[in-house]
Amino acid sequence: MDNTKNSRVLWAAIERIALYVVAVITPLVLSAVLRPQTIDNFACELSRSFALLAFSILSLQFVVSARFKWIERPFGLDMIFRFHKAMGVFAAALLIVHPILFAAGKDWSLLLSNSRYILLAKIGLLILLILASISIFRLVIKFEYEKWRSFHNIIAAPVLLIGFLHSWNLGSDVTKIPMRVLWIGMLGMAVLAYLYHRMLRPLWHRRHVYRVIETRKETPNVWTVKFAPPPRTIPFHQAVPRRRPAG
Fold first, then answer.
1. Residue-wise burial string across 113-148, b where 16 or more C-beta atoms lie within 10 A, e elsewhere
2. How confident is the model over 137-193, as pLDDT tens digits?
3. Fewest 10 Å CB contacts: which of 111, 127, 194, 207?
4. How many angstroms separate the CA atoms of 228 and 96, rounded?
5. In this structure, which long-range contacts are made by residues 147-156, counting pairs with CB atoms below 8 Å and at least 24 apart in sequence?
């Protein structure tokens, strides 16, 4: 029985990982299909690939962290959050290298450009680097988790929007209609996941609030917390059946 259950969990995890990989690389594959030949050098092409990959990762960050049960079930919440953190740092690294490679392939003066969408991208990258740095060193700088969570939830959405505007207006890979449809779809997916996580899910849980009834320290780093479900009430219009007297 345990082996069957473990096998199901394993296959469920593999299925979700495969879907994630497909979603991440779809922009790269579609771009290659739509633009099979290019006159740009290797540095420029790699730079564009890093940007496409980073945008798809950032879009999926909102889905991964939205607390969907279907996604969490095979992994557990802790592993999901660790993955979310690692992929955020990875996306930030890709976006750091992106302008350097592009400038190396085109013109180094592009790094000093202050045109509208390049300047916007610089601001977005700076915000993303701040997010990634706090995520890595939060415990070192003693940044409280609740404050970090609130800050992260507010700042993360503008970063994705900035990336969308930058790629939409300057990205040569996003000029084709199929890529534009995909780009709008990925942004829309992220927005829906964000709204679910920040608005719909909290509204639902307010109707099902559990109470903490006991906390017990087991070891210096382990606590046991017991919860009680909300009391079930009988609506005033619901009749309570009465027993007939025997005989």
1. eeeebbebbbebbeebeebbebbeebeeeeeeeeee
2. 988 888 888 888 888 888 899 999 999 999 999 988 899 999 999 999 999 999 999
3. 207
4. 47
5. 153/198, 155/127, 155/130, 155/131, 156/61, 156/62, 156/131
Closest by CA to 111, choosing from 94, 99, 123, is 99
DSSP 92-140: HHHHHHHHHHHHHHS-GGGGG---HHHHHHHHHHHHHHHHHHHHHHTTT
3-state secondary structure at position 68:
coil
Separation CA 19–CA 231 (nearest Å): 40
Domain ranges for the chain: 2-206
Residue owning tokens 């976006």: 95
